[in-house]
Amino acid sequence: MRLDEVPIPDPSGTQVRIRVAGCGVCHTDLHIVDGTQPRVSLPVTLGHEVAGFVDAVGPGAAEQTPIGQAVLVYGGWGCGVCRECRAGAEQRCDRSVAPGFQADGGYAEEMLVPDPRHLVPLSRLDPVRAAPLADAGVTPYRAVRRAERWLQPGARVLVMGAGALGQFALQYLRVLPEAGPDLLVVVQELPDARHQQATDLGADAVVLDPAPDAALTALGDAADVVLDFVGTDATLAQAAAVVSPDGLVVLVGEAGGSMPFGFGGLPVESWLTTVAWGSHDDLRHVVRLAEDGVLRWDVEPVPLAEASAAHDRVRSGDVNGRLVLVPSWTPAVVGT
Question: What's the confidence (pLDDT) of residue 264?
Fold first, then answer.
């Protein structure tokens, strides 16, 4: 990565220019830097967890977006006309252009958003604090929603990885499905994990041993749902070893892992699915939960000029919650 001075972009058509208040640092940003993330157009300004203020609008957006409005940027910029987009799932559009991947994102003081429909107004959240909701908040929301059919009273749930996304998942498991209070939720983490925090956020037990038997002992039986927020070969093998027949494995983490699929490799009639971000509606619901005070999450502002140092910290695991890059003009915000 390098820090450049570039012209401030002028919006045209339906474009909206956002004065960036904060942009979350995601593990996916590291994958882009490492060259392992598919569908990335270089050079590109990183950053897909963006919040800020409407700074200027093109003529096609003038009546829809008031100047100065605090907003969270939805990152799944679909074509708007295909079947997936019309169904409200722009993040699945095969022609999508996403900030920080194919379009310039929020590691900047200003950025362009192609259409006002990609903005979620913020009324009671500081934008710096809200920025991680655009991915770390909405992606586990999508995962838990996809698993709701399995989340019946007494269901056993294994959450693999209780980092920034897994911490949101623990909270959603308790508040989204009707059976939330009656689920058995076990977290499987690394030995240096903050397991007290996972317990505070809704876990019934935290297992530090990565062996399948350790998870099965804590669960009391095979898992009805496994939420894998790591996504390596090892964690997927673990998921296959602990999921029940007709159980569900949700792959959320993008660490590049895979598992063999076929008879004998998984319990009979078990289900596998992936999750990519969430829909516009998903993000609006997450913002509503956050503004109602239902969710807890940690943010630590880091100056934009220290983006490389922020990446080093994420690589080393020296993070509690989400690092949020802030331009020099942004007031400091610290808290949970």
Answer: 86
pLDDT band at 131 (very low <50, low <70, confident <90, very high): very high
Looking at residue 265, its pLDDT comes to 85
Domains by residue range for the chain, with CATH:
16-135+278-326 (3.90.180.10), 139-274 (3.40.50.720)
Token representation of residue 303: 């100056």
Separation of alpha carbons 188 and 210, rounded Å:
7
Give the pLDDT confidence score for residue 193 in this predicted structure: 62
Tokens 């995601």 belong to residue: 26
- Structure token digits, residue 130: 């809200």
HEC states along 31-99? HHHHCCCCCCCCCCCCCCEEEEEEEEECHHHCCCCCCCCEEEECCCCCCCCCHHHHCCCHHHCCCCCCE
> Coil, helix or strand for 323?
strand
Write down the pTM of the prediction.
0.95
The conformation of residue 253, written as its DSSP 8-state character, comes to: -
Residue 336's pLDDT band, with cuts at 50, 70 and 90, is very low
- Helix 27-34 to helix 307-316 angle (10° resolution) is 100
Alpha carbons 307 and 135: distance in angstroms, whole number: 18
Helix axes 280-291, 138-146, angle to 10 degrees: 110
Tokens of 21: 């208040």
Token pair of 218, please? 């804590």
Predicted local confidence at residue 317, as pLDDT: 86
Per-residue exposure over 17-53, b if at least 16 CB sit within 10 Å of its own CB, e if not: bbbbbbbbbbbbbbbbeeeebeebeeebbbbbbbbbb
Segment 254-267, tens digit of pLDDT? 888 999 988 988 99
| CA 24 distance to own-chain centroid | 10
What is the DSSP-derived secondary structure letter of residue 259?
A: -
For 254-257, the CB contacts below 8 A with 24+ separation are 254/27, 254/28, 254/31, 254/37, 255/27, 255/230, 255/231, 256/31, 256/36, 256/231, 256/232, 257/230, 257/231, 257/232, 257/233
| Structure tokens belonging to residue 195 | 């397991």
